[in-house]
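Just scan my protein:

——
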Amino acid sequence: MKIVLQYFVISCLFSFSLLAKQQYAVILQYHRFDDERYPSTNISMKLFTQQIEYLIQYNYNILPLSKVVRFLRENRSLPDKTVVITIDDAYKTVYTKAYPLLKKHHLPYTVFVNTMPIEHRSKNYLSWDEMREMGKHGAEFANHSYSHPYLVRKRFDMTQEIQKAQEKLEKELGDRVCSEPKMFAYPFGEYDKKLMDLVAKLGYVGIAQNSGPISNKSNFMALTRFPMSGGYGVMDQFVVKINTLPLPLQSVENEDTLVDESNNPPLLTLTLQQPLKAFQCFNANGQKLAMQWLSDTKVTIQSAQPLLYPRNHYTCTAPAEDGRWYWYSHLWVVLK
């Protein structure tokens, strides 16, 4: 009996150690808070507060994005239930609405800043002094370009857009700017192979806006995040998303994102690490996509209709254990 009990205790401890360590995380993305003028990028403070209180009540580990990315790139384990809070564009309501709640709970978060409106002292954006204060209470800051342009669609000096913003951030905010690693969030969430290659050459990690958890196997030039604005963060969806697992992928073909008349609707080919039951894919409107299985682990996915300007995505999911979901999303930038 004693031997059986010892075996049971050892087994439980071993199982707990496996559950307590992971190499994946969920990143949440926000923009505006309690600003109903812009519903597609806004979340109410009532809902945001519910989300934060849920994370705290159920013992989620909220970590800075820079630390999570660093650990994953180095193949180091993260705590179980790791979640990251990110905020894009540095709107004023980050300071007036979200910051007091985040400060109250001593939570870390990452703000991606496009610096031009800050330099112009726009009343709709944070000031450098406000960001310095936030930096003393959990905030870190990263690059979201200088002027927030459509880098993929128009002829911009992409290097200048990135480097000019980084220089200003470092000058004004010092060591509260992410440097290990440097991170760049794509304006409008749009990127293509050319831009990803440039971001890598300049020494940045690329941050996207299409949904899904990240892992040590992710493409670090396009780390995915779950948008929480525009109705995507209601509590039932929120709970599902913070518990998602990375889709076990062996490879992704057609990794470029550009779609024009020659390849619309685009074809995506995924190879899974193992067969998955009830695997299915949808476009941004929730319409189910056609799939053709080339083997029990290799599948092609394609919309029945051409994708509409300006953006779309193919999102693929499958049920995992304990009511959780595997999740993967591929961005498409639709050109005119």
